[in-house]
Amino acid sequence: MPRAASQPSGRGRPIDPDIETRLLSTTLELYGDLGWARLNLDLIARHAKVGKAALYRRWQTKEQIMSAALRFSQRSLGDLDTGTLRGDLVAVGQETAERLFGNHGTVRMRAMIDAKVFPELFEGEIAGVRAEGITGGREIIFRAIERGEIAKGTSPALILDAVAGTIEHHYLMTPNSKLKEFEAGIDKYIESVVDLVLGGVKSQSSSADR
């Protein structure tokens, strides 16, 4: 008789396909709550209910896992291409709002503060994540220039800062008791911000042409 196919012995723990997602999500959650100084790998492993060995096989420093976590949560702005600058900027605004109102809304705020308190963070692993976000945003503006929607020499930083920065500032200045109301009307607010910014850009271009 032919021998039966060998079966798995069942020894050891089964591989968890969601382990990396759980570790990265936990990293973002803890960083948002505690900040950089109090974040450490052992704490991440404990809260994610993952063995330390499994974590250290993937990342050996908190800079490495934080870099991976930020990439995990960051949508590339270069992928946003609606065909018009207005559509792209509305999408940038929506992505900004989703990040603020999402499960890890405080992460971006923490990162901006910690970049000043711990500048060495942005000279190593995490610097690449930041650069990717800047590059993606610049692509949106360069495409608009190529389409003839705005003048050559228009500053990508000014436009993107005006859109994303306005939304972030309004979020920070809104009392917690009013955040639900702000979120409910966020789409209209984003469109108003984008139209105001584009109005200024086009007005500046018209003045330069005279």
From TrEMBL:
DNA-binding in keyword set:
yes
- Keywords, sorted A to Z: DNA-binding, Transcription, Transcription regulation
Is Electron transport among the key words of this record?
no
What is the protein's given name? Uncharacterized protein
What PANTHER family does this protein's entry cite? HTH-TYPE TRANSCRIPTIONAL REGULATOR RUTR (PTHR30055), TETR-FAMILY TRANSCRIPTIONAL REGULATOR (PTHR30055:SF148)
One function term, GO molecular function aspect: DNA-binding transcription factor activity
